[in-house]
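User: Design a sequence. Structure:
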């Protein structure tokens, strides 16, 4: 049983560590580099947007408004903590109104 667990750990670790050692040695075309640079933003959006729409059950507009406020603060280059606190405050204010 322990050999199966060790084998699964090795198989999981190889695809995670291999790109870190190989990517620096390859030169990608410009369009590939741009596409690879956009992946973190796309993944972040895919993770955050469902949470925004379900922050309060049955009232997705509250989360969308708070997300909009967070986007405005992010574009104004406010500190990340300030942006998060303002978004949380927006949700709080909109729930008590």
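Assistant: Done.
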């Amino acid at each position: 049983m322990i050999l199966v667990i060790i084998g699964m750990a090795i198989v999981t670790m190889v695809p995670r560590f291999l790109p870190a050692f190989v990517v620096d040695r390859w030169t990608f075309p410009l369009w590939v580099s741009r596409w690879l640079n956009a992946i973190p933003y796309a993944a972040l959006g895919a993770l955050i947007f469902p949470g925004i729409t379900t922050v309060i059950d049955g009232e997705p507009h509250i989360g969308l408004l708070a997300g909009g406020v967070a986007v405005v603060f992010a574009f104004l280059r406010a500190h990340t903590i300030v942006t998060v606190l303002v978004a949380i405050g927006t949700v709080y204010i909109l729930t008590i109104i």
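DSSP finds four helices and no strands in the chain. Residues 62 and 95 are 8 Å apart (CA to CA).
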